[in-house]
Design goal:
The complex is a heterodimer.
Chain A (H helix, E strand, L loop, with lengths): L2 E5 L2 E5 L4 E8 L3 E9 L5 E6 L6 E3 L2 E6 L4 E6 L8 E9 L5 E3 L3 E6 L1
Parallel strand pairs in A: 2-11
Antiparallel strand pairs in A: 1-3, 3-8, 4-5, 4-9, 6-7, 7-8, 9-10, 9-11
Chain B lengths: L3 E4 L2 E4 L5 E7 L5 E8 L3 E10 L2 E4 L6 E3 L9 E3 L8 E8 L7 E2 L3 E5 L1
Parallel strand pairs in B: 2-11
Antiparallel strand pairs in B: 1-3, 3-8, 4-5, 4-9, 5-6, 7-8, 9-10, 9-11
Classes of the chains: A mainly beta, B mainly beta.
């Protein structure tokens, strides 16, 4: 059974801080790892990683995957109040298109 | 409207009643999914479908029924609702070979 564990469960920071969110996984026939952002509504897609060591970057957000150690991190630099959300990590395997999600990290950014 | 839409967005029902949550997508995506989201459990897969007339169980299928007679629709039915099925339900879809799921806005179901 595929498994995804995220840490920390929650995090409170101040605007301008840098945060690192962690995701470790166990999956049979790994295909991809995805990060989503959820703000009181539907999760929205951030990144998909398939190759180890290659950083994906979008503005202040970046993510990297380590397939040997089975984890990924999501970094957010210069945080803003609009970054407050639950960040979800998910893994996909080669058996189909479904994703297994972690429990999420709730980030609160204070002004 | 283009995209993936769920209805109803909010539903209150009583124990034992049948409830159907609707999901419609306009992209002709082959794959469709139903997840439930509960505090402490994250998103858990209930059922998924790889194509019309093909459905399969996910992690938590008990108490739910799905069908997919048309590619664009994937209704989820609770045949006899229980309080433990109080949750937020998300429908999602993806193209073949693509792990990126696009989610609907969610349906919040309360079973009294």
């Amino acid at each position: 059974e595929d498994k995804v564990v995220q840490s920390p469960l929650s995090l409170v920071v101040h605007e301008g801080d840098t945060v690192t969110l962690n995701c470790s996984y166990e999956v049979t026939n790994f295909r991809s790892l995805l990060w989503y952002k959820q703000e009181k509504k539907a999760p929205t897609f951030l990144f998909m990683l398939t190759s180890s060591g290659i950083e994906k970057k979008s503005g202040r957000l970046s993510s990297i995957l380590d397939k040997k150690e089975l984890f990924s991190i999501l970094n957010i630099t210069a945080t803003q109040t609009g970054d407050s959300a639950v960040y979800l990590c998910a893994v996909g395997n080669n058996a189909g298109n479904m994703l297994t999600f972690g429990g999420g990290t709730r980030l609160m950014v204070k002004p | 409207d283009a995209g993936i839409t769920q209805s109803p967005r909010y539903k209150i029902t009583e124990t034992g009643r049948q409830v159907t949550l609707m999901c419609h997508q306009t992209w002709s995506h082959s794959y469709m999914f139903w997840y439930r989201q509960d505090l402490g459990h994250g998103l858990r897969l209930i059922y998924y479908s790889a194509a019309a007339d093909i459905t399969d169980k996910g992690e938590v299928p008990d108490g739910y029924v799905v069908s997919r007679s048309k590619t664009e629709n994937f209704p989820l039915t609770l045949e006899s609702a229980t309080r433990s099925q109080t949750s937020v339900y998300f429908c999602a879809s993806s193209a073949i070979g693509a792990n990126v799921l696009t989610f609907g806005a969610g349906s919040r179901l309360t079973v009294l």
